[in-house]
Amino acid sequence: MLFFSEVKYLGCYVDDSSRMLDVHNQSNQMTLEMCKQSCHKHRYLGLQNHNHCFCGKSLGDSNRYQKKKENECLQPCGGNLSQTCGGFWRNSVYEFIPVTVPTTKMTTPGHSTVKTTDMNTSRQSTVTTTEMTTNIQSSVTTTEILWLGQSEVTTTHMKTYRQSPVTTIQITEPGASEVTTFETTPEVTSVQPLDCLCPCFSIAKGKWDFLRGMNLTLDQLREVMKPELDLMKKELSVNKSNTTRMRRSKISAPDDRVSATSVGYVGIVFICLITLLIVFIDIIGCFASKFKRQL
User: Fold this and answer.
1) What's the CA gap between 54 and 102, in Å, rounded?
2) Are 143 and 131 in contact (CB under 8 A)?
3) What is the mean pLDDT of the chain?
4) Bridge partners of 168?
5) Which residues contact 147 (CB under 8 A, 6 or more apart)?
6) Which of 48, 82, 202, 281 has its CA 20 to 30 Å from the CA of residue 116?
7) Where in the cell is it found (predicted)?
8) Tell me: the pLDDT tens digits for 214-245?
9) So where are the chain's domains?
10) Residue pair 97/36 in contact by the 8 Å Cβ criterion
């Protein structure tokens, strides 16, 4: 079963205005993780000049976009200074590598079902999930997460028919003592059926569900989910200059209402009457002056 993809660094490649990779994303907080999220539907990704991320299905013309020396791709990423985001017209190019998750399922008729899933992430972590269900009696789900050289977290959730469910969290860190936490939910003797207030059939398991039983602090959760939160913040941000209200304030629009037309006509008539009155007064003044001279 294909679960997700990792990336493999290919090297520093030259780029130009025609673009080596055709899909472009930009952020002042750019990181490798953010670029991976944006390019997960493509085969290649490239980081360029601090804050640019490019995606593509191929690397383009090999004679045009050639590999360069690594010292031409030394600019740090805007969102993580420890990562490299290419250089000026230079791409730090990565290739997605699919990770296969083998699943083993064993069923004993009328007795139990055991399902084991192993997921290995190179240089990062190993996740093993075991689900065992006994017919009508109980179910046990065990999740083991091992960060290489860091710590090991084992979460066991046991639910027995007509008894209280028990959750055990075991955390082991190198050079430190082992911490085990028990969480027991009180037994509920009677449960009133609840109406589903949302379209439950459309709710799927999220990719962050495995974090629920890890007892992480808020700061640790923010660190794990930072790339995706930054991407959501970028997608939800609105540029005021592109809003309809701002555009309307820069232009004038015709007013076809009858009241507006009537006001315009009244204004024109009033201005004409004032003009005629002034001209009439001047004519009378001219006749009066001529009459006085004749006398």
Assistant:
1) 31
2) no
3) 76
4) 156, 182
5) 124, 125
6) 202
7) Membrane
8) 777 888 878 878 888 888 888 888 777 777 77
9) 2-100, 101-188
10) no
Could you tell me what percent of the chain has a pLDDT over 90?
Answer: 30
Output the six-digit token pair for 253: 């629009």
In one letter, which amino acid is 168? T
Strands (E), 173-224: 179-184
Helix (H, G, I), strand (E, B) or coil at 89: coil
Residue that has been written with the tokens 């609105």 in this structure: 238
Q: What are phi and psi of 282, to 5 degrees?
A: -65, -40
Give the chain's largest Cα–Cα span. Answer: 136
**Distances from the Cα of 88 to the Cα of 14, 52, 55, 85, 108, angstroms:** 9, 11, 17, 10, 61
93-146 pLDDT tens trace: 999 987 655 666 666 555 566 666 656 554 455 666 666 666 556 677 776 666
Amino acid code (one letter) for 189: T
Integer Cα distance of 259 and 121 in angstroms: 72
CA 177 to chain centre: 37
Residue 195, phi then psi, degrees to nearest 5: -75, 140
Instruction: Look at residues 97, 113, 66 and name the one whose alpha carbon lies nearest to residue 3.
Output: 97
The two beta strands, 67-68 and 90-100, are: unpaired
Sequence-ordered list of residues with C-beta below 8 angstroms from that of 240, at least 6 positions apart, any chain: 246
